[in-house]
Amino acid sequence: MVADVRILHISWEFPPLVYGGLGRHVDALARAQVAAGDEVVVITQTEGSASRDEVHGTTVIRRPRKDPALAFSEENLLAWVAGLEEPLAEAAQDLSRQWRPDVVHAHDWMVAHAAGAAAQLFPAALVTTVHATEAGRHSGWLPNELSRSLHSVEWWLTHCSQRVITCSRSMKREVEQLFDLDPERVIAVPNGIDLAEWRTTPAARRRARARHAGEGPLLVHTGRLEWEKGLHTLLDAMPTLRRRLPGVRLVVAGRGSKEGEVKAQAKRLRLGRSVEFLGWLPEDELHALVAAADVAVVPSRYEPFGLVALEAAALGTPVVVSACGGLAEIADDGRMALTFPPGDHKALAAAVCDAVRDTAASRRRAGHAEQRLREVYPWRRVAALTREVYEAAVADWADRGAPEVTVPPAPPAGSQLISGSG
Predict the structure, then answer these.
(1) pLDDT for 113-125, tens place per residue?
(2) Fewest CB atoms within 10 Å of the CB: 104, 224, 294, 389?
(3) 351, 341 Cβ separation under 8 angstroms
(4) CA-to-CA distance for 122 and 420, rounded, in angstroms?
C-alpha cells in the first residue's frame, strides 16, 4: 500500500446528524487518519440539501434520503434504509469520476448495499466495522421476521468484506460465531477518545452540581434510552440506593425509544424527585454534568464497547459498569471501574455504594483510568491499528479479488444464535 492511504467511509450518521456513538466514532477516526497524512472522504446522509465540504481536513459528501417524509420506525425500517442507501450509492458513483479510494470502509448493515456497490464500482478493498449486531441486541435471539432480515444483511456484508473490525475482543467472538467467519478476518480495534475534547471548567462543574445534586451523592447515566442500555436495572436499584445513600439523586441524559417506559418505571417505583430525566444535552452541558457526578453508571445488558464509560473516566468521574462485552474489558479487572453482573440491580447498588463510600479506592481507579486513556485509547493509536487492517484487506483483495458471496437460508423464526450476548 502507498504511504498515504485513500479512504472512503460510508456511514449512515456523521456530525452534526448523530443518533448514537457510531457517527462520533467515524468523525474521530477520520480526523485521526487525516492527521496521519491519509486522504479521507466520508459519504453520509443529511436532513438538508446535498452538499460537499471540508470538515477538519475530511471531505464530507452529504446526500438527503429519497423519502424524507418516511418515519424512522420498526415498521418502516427496511424502506427507510432503502431510501438512505440509494443516494449514498449515487454519491459514490459521482465520486468515482474523479477519485478512487484504496479502501471502502462500511459502518454497520444500514450502508451494506451502498458500500458493497461502491467497492465493486471503484474497485477497492472493502472493510466493515460491525458496531453491534441484531442478534446481540436481542440477547442472542432473532425474535421476528425483521430481525432475521437484518441478520441476513449483516451476514452478507461481513462475507463481502476482506476484513471485519469489531471494537472489542468479546465482539470479535460474537461476530465470528454469528457469521461463521475465519478468525483471521475479524480484527478487534478499540474505540478511542480525545481527552482534549472531554473537558469542562470548575465553574461549569459547580453550576451543574448546584443545579442537579441534592444533599447526597449525584449519579449520572448518559446515552440512548434503549432496552440493551440497561437503565431499567439502574432504576430498580434506586430504592436500595435511597436507603443506603440518603439524599442520592440520579440524572439521566439521553433519549430513545424506551423513554416512556423508563419514566413509567420511575413513577411506579415512586422515585419522585430522586430521578431527573433531562433528554438530550449539548456537549458542554453534558461534560459539566458528568464531571459533577460522584459516580457514572453504565448498566448495559449488551455493549459492544461502552464509549460513555471512557468519556466519564476522561472527566475524572468514578465509573461503575456492568461486566458485559466491551465494558468488562474497559473495567480492566476492576482497576479502572467497578463492575456488577448485567441485570443484577442488587449488585449494581452494592458497587455504587462502594464507589461512593471508598473515595480513596475511587481516586486510585481514576488515576489508573487516566493512564489507560492515554496509552490504550488515543485516536492516533486507533487509526494506526485500523491502518494495519486496511493493509491486510488490500493485500487480500489484490491476491483474491472480491469474494463470491451467497446468503445462507434465513434462520428459523425465533432462533437463538448465541447463548447470551456481550
Answers:
(1) 999 999 999 999 9
(2) 224
(3) no
(4) 39
